[in-house]
Amino acid sequence: MTRKQAQALTGIVLALGIIAIDQAIKVAVKTGMYLHQSIKVTDWFQILFTENDGMAFGMEIIPKWFLTSFRIGAVVFLVWYISRCIKRGIGWGYLVCLTMIVAGAAGNIFDCMFYGMIFNNPPAPHTAELVSWGTGYGQLMLGRVVDMFYFPLVEWDWPSSLPYIGGEHFIFFSPVFNFADASISCGVIALILFFNKNVLR
Q1: How much is the pLDDT for 32?
Q2: Rounded distance, CA 39 to CA 35, Å?
């Protein structure tokens, strides 16, 4: 097996592994917990079932259909870019970073594309179930992304004497995210730290 073949196989296996883990976690949470249910693991880590229509970490900035289309386009471009880099001679570390980003994006795309078609959306305390295709809670490309990892690392109440924020409860790291978000974030951070000057290695 040549280096190029080994890298292509590594990228495919890594991407499929990340997507499989991401989807397994999401399906387990969605079918085993009701919306907004929380399981306390430690004082600073909870499994909190939430869903969002927006970007990573629950942000909502642009319309859902546009976001899903953008994600698909980005994944197609990155797959093309990775294959091009492999032909040119890509470094292993750079390959892993790009693959993590692509796989994470693909994992969230799957939610957006299909979850509305294959899952119902019962009220708490009932949990979601798989349903016949097209009889779920939403339309194709308009499904909601499942999030579950919540790390309220530090919490405090601002002194009431402070202007504007006095008496407010503050949580350091309040976003709820999923395995796909983590894969994207780790890939991007590694790219910035190690490959910002020379992408080929």
Answers
A1: 97
A2: 12
Q: Mind spelling out the 3-state secondary structure of the chain?
A: CCHHHHHHHHHHHHHHHHHHHHHHHHHHHHHHCCCCCEEEEECCEEEEEEEECCCHHHCCCCCHHHHHHHHHHHHHHHHHHHHHHHHHCCCHHHHHHHHHHHHHHHHHHHHHHHHHHHECCCCCCCCCCECCCCCCCCCCCCCCEEEEEECCCEEEECCCCCCCCCCCEEEECCCEECHHHHHHHHHHHHHHHHCCCCCCC
Residues forming the active site: 147, 181
Predicted pLDDT at 62? 66
Instruction: Read off the pLDDT band of 166 (50, 70, 90).
Output: low
Q: Where are the domains of the chain?
A: 3-194
**For residues 160 and 173, what is the distance between their CA atoms, to the nearest angstrom?**
22
Q: What is the mean pLDDT of the chain?
A: 88
pLDDT of 8-34, one tens digit each? 999 999 999 999 999 999 999 999 999
Q: CA of 189: how far to CAs of 172, 177, 200, in Å?
A: 20, 16, 17
Spatial distance between the Cα atoms of 27 and 47, rounded to a whole number of angstroms: 14
- Specify whether the CB–CB gap between 174 and 87 falls below 8 A: no
pLDDT of residue 154: 75
- Which pTM was predicted? 0.86
Q: What radius of gyration do the chain's Cα atoms show?
A: 19
